[in-house]
Amino acid sequence: MNVAEMTKMRPDAAKTGSELVPTRRTLLERLRDLDDHDSWQEFFDTYWKLIYCAAVKAGLSDSEAEDAVQETIIGVARRMPEFRYEPGVCSFKGWLMHVTRRRIIDHLRKRQTRQAQPLPSDTATQELGLQIPDTAAERAFAEVWEQEWEKNLVDAALERVKRVVKPEHYQIFYLHSVKNMPARDIGQLLGVSAAKVYVVKHRLARLVKQAARRLEREEASEDA
Known about the structure:
Number of domains: 2
Oligomer: single chain
Number of strands: 0
Distance between the termini: 36 Å
Structural class: mainly alpha
Strand content: under 5%
CATH class of the largest domain: Mainly Alpha
Order of helices and strands: HHHHHHHHHH
Largest sheet: none
Number of helices: 10
Mean pLDDT: 79
Shape: globular
CATH architecture of the largest domain: Orthogonal Bundle
């Protein structure tokens, strides 16, 4: 299954309340079952954009980054039978960063082999030092990963909310909060009152904040 196919899939069962963002520990335990398609889709929906954006910032093209996403997910699947969730030893964020970085380096090396010449010295790739792994290179990539991780918290929260609310309500929230469309224009477009736009926007904004805070608390507990 490729990236495009996975992005079109969605679990059939809706989640509400405390299940809006299942704990990472619970999700990772479920991933031990490679036939648990809903859990693997949950994992993909949560982390694909993080991996993709980090790969692009590291110097990969769009197609290379898509391949890196697919290969990272496959790599995670292969390692899940032996994987043990031990935050005190290594956080999940750090583990996934390591797996992703290796796939990015693989693609950069493949590109060099195809081109049979060094990469330009002014590329983001050399700035991140991905060709010759060392402490400075790892630190540079870790900074990029941290930035993308924070963005992904919000994106993951939005995705969770999108999957548990009515499509019309999410559309209202998206147009008003993300696209900054005036409530009056949204009302005319969707045939609803401006008052409803405000009510839906505030309700979904609260759900997004709750989902993001839970993800943040989970990450903080790993680093503690």
